[in-house]
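Record now logged underneath.
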Amino acid sequence: MTDFKGRVAFITGGASGLGLSMARAFGARGASVMLADIQADRLAEAEALLKGAGVEVASVGCDVADEASVRAAAQATLDRFGKVHIVANNAGVSVVGRAGKVGLKNWRWVVDINLMGVAHGVEIFLPILRNQGEGGHFLNTASMAGHGAAAGMGPYNATKFAVVGYSESMQQELVEEDIQVSVLCPAFVKTNIAHSELQSPGLRLPPEEARKSKRFQKIKEAVEGGLEADAVGEWVAECMEANRFYIFTHPELRPGLEARYAAIMADYQAIADDGRFG
């Protein structure tokens, strides 16, 4: 099992939402925490909150889409704490739009943060964990959108499916190295992700106008009706302690997973029945 006491955790998207909630849960179990986020103003506030709760914490500005920025954040973590054992690749964004209308700027933005941000975290931190020889744990934040697609969410679905697949590959590769892997797959949680689209490079309306749109309000309402982030952060820590690979949050969505699997098996059966490749 993963033991947090005396370990050092690096968390991207750590200034708010799930990242901050995971930091609370990890810190309460005795971990030291490096919060990494692109939003410097929120970092200071988050660091102060955790210090007030007795957590040994530091923070560093980090753009997960930028390899150099992640390398600098990794070095800052080592400079401050000497080691790192837990890497939570949590930062993420979302845009909404149907195929052909999303825009390639938005595609690249989502891929660079949601997918390459995870890849940067793994490729940069894994050699550090290996050289330390003290084991470790990677937590990659995907989504239920990585197990079932929804119309109008193409870039988000694509990157979250990719994070699930990448994490599954990592688990197989690292199983004999005492480095655990978990992939977090929540549905709606009360975070700021609905507002992330307002920062997208392909936003077609001024942010204030976009914020008033029916589409934005609908997504915002769904997110605000989601689970409390602190409850999910606690669940994540418990699942990591139990070395669970998949971390789910919404049991009521199980029928959707089962329906998707049944549809896959039905079409797979077609080639079995045909027999030409048997």
The mean pLDDT is 93. The longest strand covers residues 179-185.
